[in-house]
Amino acid sequence: MTTTSTLRRRILMGAAAAGLSTGALPGFAQTKTLLRISTPAVPDAWHAKMWTVFKDALEKSAPGEFDVQINLNASLFKQGTEPAAMARGNLELTSISPADIAKLVPEFSVFTAGYVIRDPAHQQQIFSGPIGAELFKLVTEKMDVTVLSTCYLGTRQVNLREVRQVKTPADLKGVKLRMPGSKDWLFLGNALGATATPLAFGEVYLGLKTGTIDGQDNPLPSVRAAKFYEVTKQIVLTSHLVDSLFIAIANKSFSALSPSQKQKVSTAAQAAAAYNNDNNIKEESQLVEFFKKEGLQVTVPDVDAFRKSVQTTYLNSDYAKVWPKGLLERINATK
Ligand code: KDO
After folding, report:
1. What is the spatial distance between Cα 137 and Cα 319, in angstroms, rounded to a whole number?
2. 30-333, what's its fold?
């Protein structure tokens, strides 16, 4: 039996023997450019669904040119290992956290610090302006990836397994707070007053259910999408990190594209981020009610006490020493 691929191979071999350029054969599909995406996001998260927006946008603007493969739940690469996979040429696209960037671009650690970015609008101003341009240039140079757009993951809150009186960082003493597994995240968890414990996102639900951890921190939309509310009893609205994710493409893959394809990929990444941002902002404003209905206690701590303590911890640490002179002031002055 002659399969379609055998037939296609024969035709292409014939064309090659005849000295024709196989890429120019009229009426035959060109090889599609493979764009593999890997993310730890669960399917119901906006920053997972945004990849379908990306794929649909590209199918519309460049029909048949790209083979976009979306891999959720860290099914292709473990959380935090995506930049290394991109460097090895095994992955084309992902969404990178500031903490992942900070591993190779220490200047970026300012965005892993609590209470620096004020809100989603401030975040967009920073990353779409001169500060973003300067830092993304370093990202390109040191990580060999190009940032295409900035996503608002949400504002991180503390989410506890058992109800606890939490007003200030001192009240989190001894709480085993799960944080993603890198030193910048752990520093943040400890700065909040808790005992930070590293764990991959995909293991958090079980950790909360079985009690190997006492709590975790994530934005409300992530708490909803990953169903952490099923295995926790309290959300403390510390609002300690206005969190970002950056849609990034490996430089090798990006530079292999034509100028028009580059434009289309960038536009699709912008559309994906806009979809994610609109939905996360909208949902975040509705979720406190949802969690209360689910039986959780949603409590408001002394946020000023948290802010003061966390900011002082960072400013007295080695982190502040690698932040470029004046950067924090420029971030604060960005309107
Ligand atoms: C998490 O592990 O808590 C985190 O929120 C960190 C983010 O940087 C990002 O990796 C996110 O998980 C995943 O996309 C899952 O939502």
Report:
1. 20
2. D-Maltodextrin-Binding Protein; domain 2 (3.40.190)
